[in-house]
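Re: [ENG-882] Designed sequences occasionally contain unexpected residues at chain ends

Forwarding the minimal case from QA. Structure tokens:
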């Protein structure tokens, strides 16, 4: 599974617009799903305006944890409109039919994953990733009334206050770096604030969960260059994302990182045994690291089949809360990157149903739900920023680490690399090249 891959429009000859953003498949899917109305009813029959909880999450740590659930639920029910009314109202009010009917009360932050296929590794993964970043930035620019680029935790808070969806840029897959720290640094300058160390392929410096069990790869995790990538991300203030990484890469990254890490879209391995989910011992390490496991809704990672339900997702949330603690669980649904969604959680308009269900469990306090809804992620992001400030104060400078060229030779396709082609040819430059 991947993050959604944005596609630039193919401009028809004679088209008046030179850079139309009309072919963003995954974005259109998002907006279609976001614009559905939803009643707010828990699976067990309770009726709560849980969207109020999401909207009321002020993204500040000062909220009281004292309100009993029942009292809080009554308060949300008695104040303001239902989620259905809010969503419908926004849609009716929308003057621009082509604009996204997004209910900003339900979504505060979107992770935009700049993802390019593993097959592009050794080829044009880097320029393709630049295209993806460019598309997201242009999308945010095109819809300033809905979206706002977030390059800091404070940006998220500000976007929330202004009623915009904070858009966080990430790169899903270390192969997008082309094994160069200069590319990582340039991505940061372009607004990228998290990097998933691998996607479904190994890179010359990290192994993926998808290749685990291949025998020869099983013991490899991060090599020296991989640890330098993590170190440089810490220095820059970029969040290390370990969804998709192999167990050894996960362990190495947890050891190497000075800052909290995230699993941006992974669930509990104890409930669904796939290498994309997080095992118990790693959950405990995440607690010590101060990190966050954001539960993915892909049915294959929830119930290990296509028949997951909202209650199965609740079970994963409860499990991770029990093992890692309430401060280390979040939501990483992965809509637009998943083929099978749980029944009752088909799209983001269903989030209130999830919160309504959790409200039925007295062990979930109002503050717990706010942490799940966003405060935990915000805390992690702030800590990542703090580590970056500390490293700056320590005068840690940009790393000059280069990947060991021998790591680039295991694939014959690596000969597409200019450096290697040049080195292997050992020829004198022609006069026309000087
Ligand atoms: Zn993914």
């Amino acid at each position: 599974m991947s993050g959604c891959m944005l596609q630039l429009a193919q401009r028809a000859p004679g088209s008046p617009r030179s850079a139309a953003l009309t072919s963003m498949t995954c974005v259109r899917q998002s907006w279609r799903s976001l614009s559905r109305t939803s009643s707010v009813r828990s699976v067990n029959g309770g009726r709560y305006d849980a969207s109020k909880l999401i909207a009321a999450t002020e993204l500040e740590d000062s909220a009281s944890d004292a309100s009993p659930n029942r009292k809080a639920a009554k308060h949300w029910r008695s104040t303001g409109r239902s989620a259905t009314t809010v969503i419908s109202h926004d849609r009716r009010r929308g003057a621009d039919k082509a604009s996204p009917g997004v209910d900003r009360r339900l979504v505060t932050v979107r992770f935009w994953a700049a993802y390019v296929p593993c097959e592009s590794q050794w080829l044009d993964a880097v320029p393709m990733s630049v295209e993806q970043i460019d598309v997201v930035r242009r999308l945010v620019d095109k819809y300033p009334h809905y979206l706002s680029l977030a390059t800091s935790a404070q940006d998220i808070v500000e976007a929330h206050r202004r009623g915009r969806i904070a858009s966080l840029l990430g790169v899903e897959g270390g192969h997008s770096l082309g094994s160069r720290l200069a590319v990582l640094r340039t991505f940061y300058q372009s607004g990228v604030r998290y990097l998933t160390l691998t996607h479904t392929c190994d890179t010359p410096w990290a192994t993926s969960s998808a290749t685990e069990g291949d025998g020869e790869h099983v013991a490899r995790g991060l090599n020296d260059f991989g640890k330098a990538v993590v170190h440089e991300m810490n220095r820059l203030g970029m969040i290390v994302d370990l969804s998709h990484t192999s167990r050894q890469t996960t362990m190495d990254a947890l050891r190497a990182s000075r800052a909290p890490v995230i699993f941006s879209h992974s669930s509990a391995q104890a409930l669904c045994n796939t290498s994309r989910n997080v095992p118990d011992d790693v959950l405990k390490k995440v607690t010590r690291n101060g990190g966050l496991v954001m539960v993915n809704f892909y049915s294959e990672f929830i119930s290990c089949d296509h028949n997951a339900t909202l209650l199965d997702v609740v079970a994963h949330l409860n499990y991770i809360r029990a093992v890692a603690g309430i401060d280390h669980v979040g939501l990483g649904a992965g809509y637009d990157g998943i083929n099978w969604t749980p029944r009752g959680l088909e799209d983001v308009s269903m989030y209130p149903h999830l919160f309504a269900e959790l409200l039925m469990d007295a062990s979930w306090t109002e503050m717990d739900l706010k942490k799940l809804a966003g405060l935990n992620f915000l805390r992690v992001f702030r800590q990542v920023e703090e580590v970056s400030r500390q490293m700056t104060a320590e005068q840690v400078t940009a790393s000059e680490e280069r990947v060991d060229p021998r790591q680039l030779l295991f694939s014959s396709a690596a000969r597409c690399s200019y450096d290697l082609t040049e080195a292997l040819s050992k020829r004198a430059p022609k006069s026309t090249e000087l």
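QA comment: On inspection the terminal residues look reasonable. The chain has a mean pLDDT of 76. Proposing we downgrade this to a documentation issue.
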